[in-house]
Amino acid sequence: xxxxxxxxxxxxxxxxxxxxxxxxxxMAGADLVTIHDIDDPRVxxxxxxxxxxxxxxxxxxxxxxxxxxxxxxxRWREIAVIGGVATDAALxxxxxxxxxxxxxxxxxxxxxxxx
Length: 115
Prior knowledge:
This protein is of the alpha/beta class.
Protein backbone atom coordinates (compact mmCIF):
# COMPACT_ATOMS: atom_id res chain seq x y z
CA UNK A 1 0.00 0.00 0.00
CA UNK A 2 1.42 3.41 -0.95
CA UNK A 3 1.74 6.07 1.72
CA UNK A 4 -1.05 8.60 2.07
CA UNK A 5 0.25 12.11 1.64
CA UNK A 6 -1.61 15.30 2.41
CA UNK A 7 -2.91 17.40 -0.43
CA UNK A 8 -1.24 20.78 -0.84
CA UNK A 9 -3.76 23.59 -1.38
CA UNK A 10 -2.19 26.69 -2.92
CA UNK A 11 -3.78 30.10 -2.53
CA UNK A 12 -1.15 32.23 -4.23
CA UNK A 13 -2.27 35.34 -6.09
CA UNK A 14 0.95 36.07 -8.02
CA UNK A 15 0.80 34.00 -11.23
CA UNK A 16 4.57 33.60 -11.66
CA UNK A 17 5.12 32.42 -8.10
CA UNK A 18 2.11 30.09 -8.33
CA UNK A 19 3.49 28.53 -11.54
CA UNK A 20 6.93 28.07 -9.98
CA UNK A 21 5.43 26.40 -6.91
CA UNK A 22 3.25 24.10 -9.01
CA UNK A 23 6.20 22.99 -11.12
CA UNK A 24 8.69 22.50 -8.28
CA UNK A 25 6.32 20.82 -5.83
CA UNK A 26 4.84 18.55 -8.50
CA MET A 27 8.33 17.44 -9.52
CA ALA A 28 9.03 16.70 -5.85
CA GLY A 29 6.06 14.31 -5.83
CA ALA A 30 3.46 16.48 -4.12
CA ASP A 31 -0.22 16.34 -4.97
CA LEU A 32 -1.62 19.85 -5.16
CA VAL A 33 -4.51 22.01 -6.21
CA THR A 34 -4.83 25.75 -6.57
CA ILE A 35 -7.77 27.87 -5.52
CA HIS A 36 -8.36 31.61 -5.43
CA ASP A 37 -10.29 31.77 -2.16
CA ILE A 38 -9.54 29.86 1.04
CA ASP A 39 -13.28 29.48 1.62
CA ASP A 40 -13.82 27.76 -1.74
CA PRO A 41 -16.48 25.06 -1.16
CA ARG A 42 -14.29 22.48 -2.94
CA VAL A 43 -12.03 22.44 0.13
CA UNK A 44 -14.64 20.29 1.89
CA UNK A 45 -13.97 17.46 -0.59
CA UNK A 46 -10.29 17.45 0.27
CA UNK A 47 -10.50 17.41 4.08
CA UNK A 48 -10.10 13.62 4.28
CA UNK A 49 -6.59 14.06 2.85
CA UNK A 50 -5.59 16.35 5.74
CA UNK A 51 -4.67 19.22 3.41
CA UNK A 52 -1.75 21.57 3.93
CA UNK A 53 -2.46 25.21 3.12
CA UNK A 54 0.15 27.31 1.35
CA UNK A 55 -1.06 30.89 1.19
CA UNK A 56 0.66 34.12 0.23
CA UNK A 57 0.52 37.31 2.25
CA UNK A 58 -1.74 39.01 -0.32
CA UNK A 59 -4.41 36.31 -0.02
CA UNK A 60 -3.98 36.26 3.76
CA UNK A 61 -4.48 40.04 3.93
CA UNK A 62 -7.83 39.60 2.17
CA UNK A 63 -9.01 36.99 4.68
CA UNK A 64 -11.52 38.23 7.24
CA UNK A 65 -9.85 37.97 10.63
CA UNK A 66 -6.37 37.78 9.07
CA UNK A 67 -3.70 35.65 10.67
CA UNK A 68 -5.65 34.99 13.86
CA UNK A 69 -8.57 33.53 11.89
CA UNK A 70 -6.21 31.40 9.85
CA UNK A 71 -4.55 29.99 13.00
CA UNK A 72 -8.00 29.10 14.36
CA UNK A 73 -9.02 27.29 11.15
CA UNK A 74 -8.74 23.59 12.04
CA ARG A 75 -9.24 22.28 8.49
CA TRP A 76 -5.52 22.40 7.73
CA ARG A 77 -2.88 19.87 8.79
CA GLU A 78 -0.24 22.59 8.43
CA ILE A 79 -0.13 26.15 7.11
CA ALA A 80 2.76 27.99 5.45
CA VAL A 81 2.59 31.67 4.57
CA ILE A 82 4.66 33.17 1.77
CA GLY A 83 5.87 36.72 2.36
CA GLY A 84 4.85 39.34 4.85
CA VAL A 85 5.81 39.69 8.47
CA ALA A 86 4.83 37.06 11.02
CA THR A 87 2.74 38.17 13.96
CA ASP A 88 2.83 34.68 15.44
CA ALA A 89 5.51 31.99 15.23
CA ALA A 90 2.77 29.35 14.84
CA LEU A 91 2.47 30.22 11.14
CA UNK A 92 5.79 29.66 9.40
CA UNK A 93 6.71 32.37 6.92
CA UNK A 94 8.88 31.86 3.90
CA UNK A 95 10.46 34.50 1.72
CA UNK A 96 8.96 35.10 -1.71
CA UNK A 97 12.48 34.99 -3.16
CA UNK A 98 13.06 31.33 -2.33
CA UNK A 99 9.51 30.14 -1.60
CA UNK A 100 9.60 27.09 -3.90
CA UNK A 101 12.87 25.82 -2.44
CA UNK A 102 11.80 26.52 1.16
CA UNK A 103 8.43 24.82 0.76
CA UNK A 104 10.00 21.84 -1.00
CA UNK A 105 12.23 21.48 2.07
CA UNK A 106 9.10 21.40 4.26
CA UNK A 107 7.58 18.44 2.38
CA UNK A 108 9.21 15.69 4.51
CA UNK A 109 7.68 17.25 7.62
CA UNK A 110 4.29 16.98 5.96
CA UNK A 111 4.73 13.31 5.18
CA UNK A 112 6.34 13.39 1.75
CA UNK A 113 9.50 11.36 1.20
CA UNK A 114 12.73 13.26 0.82
CA UNK A 115 14.15 13.41 -2.64
